[in-house]
Here is the input.
Amino acid sequence: MTKPTHEQILAVCAHFAFDSTITDVQVCGNGHINSTYIVTADSGKRYILQILNTAVFKDPMGVMENIAAVTDHIRAGLLAAGEDAERGTMKVIFTKDGAKGYTDDDGRFWRAYDFVEGTVCRLTVDSAETFGRVGEAFGDFLRRLSDFDASRLVESIPNFHNTKKRYADFLDAVERNASGRAHLVQEEIKFITDRADKCSLIVDALADGSLPLRVTHNDTKLSNILLDEVTNEAVCIIDLDTVMPGSSLYDFGDSIRAGAASAAEDEPDLDKVHFLPEMFKTYARGFIKGTGGDLTPKELSMLPEGGYIITLETGMRFLGDYLNGDVYFHTDYPDHNLVRARTQLKLVAETEGYMEELREFVNGLC
Here is the structure.
C-alpha cells in the first residue's frame, strides 16, 4: 500500500475529535510494523496518529477495544491513587463518530492518541540500572492490571506465545522444508527437538490453572516505555497492540531474551553472544518490585523458565522461517534468519548452565 500524502493525512485528521484543526504533520519513530506521525493542532497540542498494520493485526478494531479497555482501567487506578493520569497511560482519541479508529478509502486503518509531553523514548539499554528500571516499569504494568479480567480481551495475534503451537509449527517447517535448507541445519534442528518438553511448560500451566491468566504486554522492550526527559523515570508504557491474555512469564521472558544478552540478536560472531546472569538478576529485582507482591509463588519460581522458554521459542521461530524460505521476518541477507536463530540457541544453551543459580536468586528475593 502506498504511503499517504500530506493532504490525505490532513483529510484523515478531520475525522478525529482533536481539540482543534491539525495544521502540521511530521513522520515519527523507528517502528517496523506501523506508520507513525506526530500531528499538531493550531492550538499547539500534539497527538500521535498511526496507520495500524492490518496484515499483522487482522482485527484492528479488536486491538483498539483492547487498548481502550486497558488504558481506561489504568487511568481509573491512577486517579484513585492521586497519581498523574494524564501522563501515566495512553489516551485513545475517538473519531467524531465515536469510533476508536477510522478506515480511509484506500483501506488504511488509522488511530490516534494524545502525545505525552516531556518524555523520550530510548532504543537501547545503557546500563544494568536502566534495565532494572525497565523491569520495574513492566512489573508495575502487570500490577495495575492484576484486577482486570484478561478473558475480556481478544488475542490480537492468536497463539503469539503459545510455545507448544510454535513447536508444532516448527516441526511442520522441518518436514516441508520449503527452502531446501534442512540439511544445512541438522544440528540446530536437533537442539530444538531435544528440548521439546520445555515448550509446553507455560501453556500447560495456564491451561490447568496453576499459572494465572493475566493481561500481558508481550513486547517488553525499552523502546516501549516513555521516560521522563528530565528524571529518566518511567512514565508510560506504550505500543499496546499485543496486549492480550497471557502469562507474566511471557513479559518477563521477552525482556530477558534481549536485555540479558551480550550482543544483538543478529550478531554473526557467536563468540560475542553470551547470557548475562547479572542482567537477569537486576531485571528480576526490578520486575518483582514493580509487581508489588502480586505474583503467585509459582510465577516467581518459574521466572528463570520464562526467560529460557521465550528465548527458545524465538530461536525456533527464526529457524522455522529460515526453513520456510524467509517468508515472515524481514531479512537483509540470505542467512539472516539462521544467524538470528543461532544467537537465540546459544543463549538457551548458556542459560541452562545458570538455571539453578537463577532459581536460588529468585527464591532469595522472595
Observations:
- The chain has two domains: 6-117, 128-365.
- The mean pLDDT is 96.
- The two ends are 51 Å apart (CA to CA).
- The CA atoms of residues 190 and 196 lie 10 Å apart.
